[in-house]
Design brief:
By secondary structure, this protein is of the alpha/beta class. The chain folds into two domains: 260 residues, Crotonobetainyl-coa:carnitine coa-transferase, domain 1 (Rossmann fold); 73 residues, no CATH class. It is 38% helix and 13% strand. The chain is built from 17 helices and eleven strands. The strands form three sheets. The chain has a six-stranded parallel beta sheet, sandwiched between helices. Strands 7-8-9 form a three-stranded antiparallel beta sheet, covered by helices on one side. The chain has a two-stranded antiparallel sheet with strand order 10-11. A hairpin with a 5-residue loop joins strand 10 and strand 11. The N terminus is likely disordered.
Length: 395
C-alpha cells in the first residue's frame, strides 16, 4: 500500500529523530516507520548515511539497494550539527519528538550535546535509544562496533558443526539484525512505560549482548554443566550434495530417526547395530554415518531424496540460493516482496498484523529530500530556512 491517506497504524503520531546509519539502527527505525512512526533521518550534508556509498552501485552513489533496503518510509534532512545553528535545529525537533535513536560509539551523542540528560531537559517525555557495539561500560565500550566483531567476541564464530572446519565469517549480518530488533523492542517497551508514567527514559542494546542472547540455550548448558551444546553438530544432521544440488537433513525430534533415515535411503537399519544404537554411539560414529548418507544422496536428485525423506516424516529441505528463495511460491504467499515499481523491490515486514498492517508510505528518501518540509513543520519560517541553507547548515 502506498500514499499518505491510509488508516492509522500502531505507531501513527509517534515522531522519531533518527541519527542511525549502516544497518543495526536503520533496520530498527525502518520497522518503526513501517508501522506508522514519522521517522526523520538526520544525515550528514554531502555524504549521508554510510550505507548510501558503502557498496558502489548507482552513478551518484546515494541510492543503492543496500540503503534502500533499510530506509523506506523515512524522511531525510541533511544537516551540519557541529555548530550552534545545527544543534538548535535538533533541539527544536526534539521538543515535539517521542524518540531519538543513535548507533554511534559510546559518548558521541553526549559530546555533541544530544545525550539523554540534555534532551530530557528540553522534553521530559523523550526516549533516547542507543544501539552500540559492546555496551556503554566495560573494556570494549569505546571500541568500534561491527557485526563480524560481535560474531567473533561472543563465541558465535567459534561454534561450527565440526571442529575440523575452518573458522569463518557468517555471511548474513546476524548481530546487526538481531540487535536492531532488540532496539525496536526496547523502544516499544519504553513507549508503554511512558504511557503509565508520563516520563521518558534512556534504553540501549548492543551487538555483543544480542549475540549472547541468541545463544541462550548454549550459554545455559555451559554455565550449568560446562558442556558444549551445538545443534549443528548432531550426528544425524547435515548438508548433503545430490546429483543436482544439495539438501539439509535434521535427524532429530523422533524416537528413532536413524531407522527412518535408513528406510528413506534404502540402507540396512543401522540403529540395530550396537555401534549406532544410542545417541552417544551415533556421536562417536558420526563420520561413518555421515559418509554412508553422503554416498547415497549423491546417487539421485534433490527432489527424489526429499520425497523419500518426507515419506518418513523427516525434517528436510533443499539448500536454495537467495535468488531461488526470493522466487519461491512460499515467499510470494507470505507477501515478503514489496516495492515501488519494478526497479525497487524490497523485502517486506516479517510481522503479520490485521488490521494494523505494514504499509509502504514513502520510498527511501534522497539525501536531504525533506529538509525544508521538516523545518517548516517544526515552526521555522521561510526566511530562517533560507538562512540555514545559505549558511550550509541545511543542505
Amino acid at each position: 500500500m502506498t500514499g499518505e491517506s491510509q488508516k492509522a497504524q500502531p505507531l501513527s503520531g509517534i515522531k522519531v529523530i533518527d541519527f542511525t546509519q549502516v544497518m543495526m539502527g536503520p533496520c530498527a527505525t525502518q520497522m518503526l516507520a513501517d508501522y506508522g512512526a514519522d521517522v526523520i533521518k538526520i544525515e550528514r550534508a554531502g555524504a549521508g548515511d554510510l550505507s548510501r556509498t558503502s557498496i558502489a552501485d548507482d552513478p551518484d552513489g546515494l541510492d543503492n539497494p543496500v540503503f534502500r533496503s533499510l530506509n523506506r518510509n523515512k524522511r531525510s534532512i541533511a544537516l551540519d550539527v557541529r555548530g550552534p545553528e545545527g544543534k538548535a535545529v535538533i533541539y527544536e525537533l526534539v521538543r515535539t519528538a517521542d524518540v531519538v535513536v543513535n548507533n554511534f560509539r559510546a559518548g558521541v551523542m553526549e559530546r555533541m550535546g544530544f545525550g539523554y540528560e540534555a534532551l530530557s531537559k528540553i522534553n521530559p517525555r523523550i526516549i533516547c535509544a542507543f544501539g552500540s557495539g559492546f555496551g556503554q561500560t566495560g573494556p570494549f565500550a569505546h571500541k568500534g562496533g561491527q557485526d563480524i566483531l560481535a560474531q567473533a567476541l561472543s563465541g558465535v564464530m567459534h561454534r561450527r558443526p565440526n571442529p575440523d572446519q575452518k573458522l569463518s565469517v557468517y555471511s548474513t549480518a546476524l548481530a546487526d539484525y538481531s540487535a536492531g530488533m532488540h532496539l525496536v523492542q526496547s523502544i516499544l517497551l519504553a513507549l508503554l512505560q511512558r504511557d503509565r508514567t508520563g516520563v521518558g527514559q534512556q534504553v540501549s542494546v548492543s551487538l555483543y549482548d544480542s549475540m549472547l542472547a541468541m545463544q541462550m540455550q548454549e550459554a545455559a548448558m555451559w554455565l550449568q554443566r560446562q558442556r558444549d551444546l551445538n545443534w549443528g553438530s548432531f550426528p544425524l544432521t547435515g548438508v548433503f550434495e545430490t546429483t543436482d544440488g544439495a539438501l539439509v537433513l535434521v535427524g532429530a525430534f523422533k524416537a528413532n530417526p536413524l531407522q527412518d533415515i535408513c528406510r528413506a535411503l534404502d540402507l540396512p537399519d543401522l540403529s540395530a547395530d550396537p555401534r549406532h544404537a544410542t545417541f552417544a554411539a551415533q556421536v562417536a560414529t558420526k563420520a561413518e554415518l555421515q559418509a554412508r548418507f553422503a554416498e547415497r544422496f549423491a546417487t539421485d536428485t534433490t527432489a527424489y531424496w526429499l520425497g523419500r525423506l518426507e515419506e518418513q516424516d523427516l525434517l528436510c529441505a533443499p539448500v536454495q540460493t537467495i535468488a531461488e528463495a526470493l522466487a519461491s511460491e512460499q515467499t510470494a504467499a507470505n507477501g515478503m516482496i514489496v516495492g515501488y515499481g519494478d526497479d525497487m523491490k524490497l523485502i517486506g515486514s516479517p510481522l503479520t498484523m490485521d488490521p494494523s498492517a505494514f504499509q509502504l508510505r514513502r520510498p527511501p528518501p534522497r539525501l536531504g529530500q525533506h529538509g525544508s518540509e521538516i523545518l517548516a513543520e517544526a515552526g521555522f519560517d521561510p526566511a530562517r530556512i533560507a538562512a540555514l541553507k545559505a549558511a550550509k547548515v541545511v543542505a
